[in-house]
Amino acid sequence: MITEKRGKVVKGLGGLYEVRIDEGGKIDRLACRAKGVLKRDEAKVLIGDNVTVTVDDSTPDGIVISAIHPRKNSLIRPPLANLDYLFIVFAAAKPSPVIETVDKLIAIANYNSITPVVVITKSDLQSEAAEEYAAIYRLVGIPTFVTSSEAGIGTAELAAYIKENVISGKTSAFAGASGVGKSTLMNTLFPSLTLATAEISRKIERGRHTTRHVEIFDIENSVETGFLADTPGFSLIDFARFDFFSLEELLPTFPELLPYLGKCRYADCAHVGEGVDECAVAAAAAEGKIAPTRLESYRAIYRVLKNKSTY
Ligand SMILES: Nc1nc2c(ncn2[C@@H]2O[C@H](COP(=O)(O)OP(=O)(O)OP(=O)(O)O)[C@@H](O)[C@H]2O)c(=O)[nH]1
Ligand SMILES: [Mg+2]
Ligand SMILES: [Zn+2]
Predict the structure, then answer these.
(1) Among candidates 254, 206, 256, which has minimal Cα distance to 234?
(2) Integer-rounded Cα radius of gyration of the chain
(3) pLDDT > 70 fraction of the chain, expressed in percent and rounded
(4) Residues 157 and 216 grouped into a single domain
């Protein structure tokens, strides 16, 4: 007999996927492969995909993903489909954050209509720096949490935010550099999880890519549950090669710049010059209404996209 089920891909390793099937509140997890055409690059199954699984119980290998339902969005890094929230995780110290990468991730989330949330970890190591970073993102209007899994700071607030917002089928993910404490934080927030974590290297202060694959977890044991993915930390090299959208699409991904549009002296102002008389954005930054690091990140991404578009 052949039957069809609908479910969500929550894990994938070496071409073997795990699909979470919800049959009226009864959760089943099927191990399966994907049908031939869904193995090719351009049509490949992503974790987070909603799929149809065809079950043919007359053959031993009869469970296959036969169709991918239309996606809301998809990211290259972390490789996930249908995200509603992206928790952008960085440490106050060890490893110290690369703010431009944080801002890139926020821009990518905004571009894909994913709600960005900033999570600063390891506040026990550098509480002042943690609050300074938080102030930057609160000024933008992004929900921001200062946490320490070690000292139990901010974790109850973050767990409450997730439980309140990521419900009834919404999907979210932790993303950030290796070693910032994503898996540790997930274990702290959801004690039923037992994700592997590891110390960062003492010499180079970097994580060791402890998490090796993307996996989506149920955040509650109920039909109302939402989903949260742990993802492998990336290195900066990953990000240098990252290309995401065109120059024209950049500005709306920095929402705090929007109120100043049309207020610069020249209509074609790109907001990359320092002149506060010419550029309303530069003036707003000088007045403390836009964080200097955010404007720096905007300009850095602008230059990268500009160079790309001149080829
Ligand atoms: N001091 C301090 N250390 C922490 C905290 N959270 C995590 N760590 C440590 O940071 C190291 C890395 O933690 P992980 O959770 O493995 O980091 P990760 O972001 O999941 O790393 P990848 O899986 O490689 O992406 C571990 O040694 C943790 O014990 C914290 O709040 N304070
Ligand atoms: Mg991890
Ligand atoms: Zn301007």
Answers:
(1) 206
(2) 21
(3) 95
(4) yes
- Are 81 and 177 part of one and the same domain? yes
Per-residue pLDDT reduced to its tens digit, 242-279: 557 888 899 999 999 999 999 999 999 999 987 999 99
Residues 228, 82 share a domain: yes
- Tell the residue nearest (CA) to atom 23 of ligand 1: 211
Band the pLDDT of 239: cuts 50, 70, 90.
low
Residue-range definition of the domain harbouring residue 207: 74-240
Of 196, 221, 240, the last residue of a domain is 240
Three-state secondary-structure class, residue 264: coil
Q: What's the pLDDT tens digit per position in 154-210?
A: 999 999 999 999 999 999 999 999 999 999 999 999 999 989 998 877 666 777 789
Which one of 125, 145, 184 would you pick to mutate in the ligand 1 pocket, going by the greatest count of ligand atoms within 8 A of its CB? Answer: 184
Residue with tokens 């929402």: 255
**Tokens at 178, concatenated:** 């290796």
- Provide the 3-class DSSP secondary structure of residue 66: strand
State the residue for tokens 């001149």: 310
Residue 191 and residue 148 share a domain = yes
How much is the pTM? 0.96
Please state the domain count of the chain: 3
Q: What is the pLDDT of residue 234?
A: 85
**Nearest ligand to the C-alpha atom of residue 181:** 1
Nearest to 47 by CA among 67, 84, 74, 87: 74
- Expressed in angstroms and rounded, the spacing between residue 55 Cα and the centre of ligand 2 is 33
Say which ligand is closest to the CA of 267.
Answer: 3
What is the per-residue pLDDT for 311? Answer: 47
Contact indicator for 227, 217 with CB cutoff of 8 Å: yes
